[in-house]
């Protein structure tokens, strides 16, 4: 990459151009690990535990491991199905709220070891992490802080137990790209036979800073998910909808996992937030997070999944789509068909980028310098960008091609390594000698896809109408 910039500079010199300084970053900016997370775009969630066999969403914690018996399990089928659908990573519920562990933890008997699965010799966490490795997907971990099985839940010894399990998992099954700290806590549970309600103070009980440091020592680049981050935040709903305005910035000092009442803030982020904590959009392909036969007819359609893609990835978020295995231990035929249909739609709708290498005429180029030319928008190189002079926060670019073609999507990307800047924009298409507005929006961020009724055109105009500082746009695609 360095060489590439040297070449640009050399080219600029050769044309007698003065070197022009790159725009200053608008803080905060993403870490390298967060940048990689943004680029994954779609990941899959896998919810699997005793709930799959009891038909519950939240197990009470008193379930017998004897019921955990997937008789035709094929973890490879899960991972190849997910890979074919385009997912880049997988997050597995190693332990959900009921406390049952999908690996043979040495700190409890409430695990696969006591189940009929592979006669107690099975280890689903290992199988999934191995399958991810062999198919080139990243592996992530959900380890529920709330544990309705553990006798000490709510008291200090449980925190040691939870940390011991994190050590077990990170040491045996890594690398782990993302760690989920779910905020849910319904109070009541089995708790080793006490069968009572245990309320905790979510802001203090878990002592998250110590736990996160422990994990970071084992996995320095892990992305922590919780309502409050610090890696990524919850999007504030389970419908698959990120805010139309979606700032990656948020001020986390008053947030903590499970705080509640902050859904709106999580959904949109905050323009002046102090930290880069982007929203992750988690949603299930079925009504529930776990498999229930009664929901076989309620699997989301490929069209619905496409909508969800547009309101998550298309709004600068990352999609975490849950696909729960059934009692056989397979991804059900209906879910497989929905995922295949979705992939097909995505491939069709985003097949030919009309803007690739198209002509781009900007209203302003930073220092009139080739390094920041609007050609960078259509060159397919994510490291180059179009930027304007520092005092310009309203600028447009016209992208045109020879023959009139039907257009229904415009995809925009900011070069977020220099921070999220754009506050509002419009998209117009040329009809004869007229420009007609077809879409407008607020934030762009890592990626923004606007859709509109198909129009026949040979030019698109994107206007940044307001920005925190000069806009820095790396990519425009048109479909
Ligand atoms: C929630 C949990 O209570 C659900 O069971 C599920 O795991 C979802 C992803 O997070 O908070």
Give an overview in words.
The chain has 479 residues and is α/β, with parallel strands linked by helices. It contains 10 helices and 19 strands. The protein folds into 2 domains: 32-349, Alpha-Beta Barrel (TIM Barrel), CATH 3.20.20.80; 359-478, Galactose-binding domain-like (Jelly Rolls, Sandwich), CATH 2.60.120.260. The protein has an 8-stranded parallel sheet, with helices on both faces. Strands 13, 14, 15, 16, 17, 18 and 19 form a 7-stranded antiparallel sheet that branches. It has a two-stranded antiparallel sheet with strand order 5-6. Helix 4 (75-85) crosses helix 5 (124-135). The longest helix is centred in the middle third of the chain and has 18 residues, at 156-173. It binds beta-L-fucopyranose.
Count of discrete domains: 2
Mean of the pLDDT scores?
95
Helix content: 10-25%
Specify Rg, calculated over alpha carbons.
Answer: 24 Å
CATH H level, superfamily name of the largest domain = Glycosidases
Measured by DSSP, the beta-strand proportion falls in 15-25%
Class of secondary structure makeup: alpha/beta
- Given the structure, what is the number of helices? 10
Q: What is the second-level CATH architecture of the largest domain?
A: Alpha-Beta Barrel
Give the CATH topology of the largest domain.
TIM Barrel
- Regions with little confidence, pLDDT below 50 for 5+ residues: none
Q: Which sheet architecture does the biggest sheet show? A: 8 strands, parallel
* Count of β-strands: 19
CATH class of the largest domain: Alpha Beta
Shape: globular
The helix-strand sequence is HHEHHEHEHEEEHEEEHEEHEHEEEEEEE
User: What strand order characterises the main sheet?
Assistant: 7-4-3-2-1-12-11-8
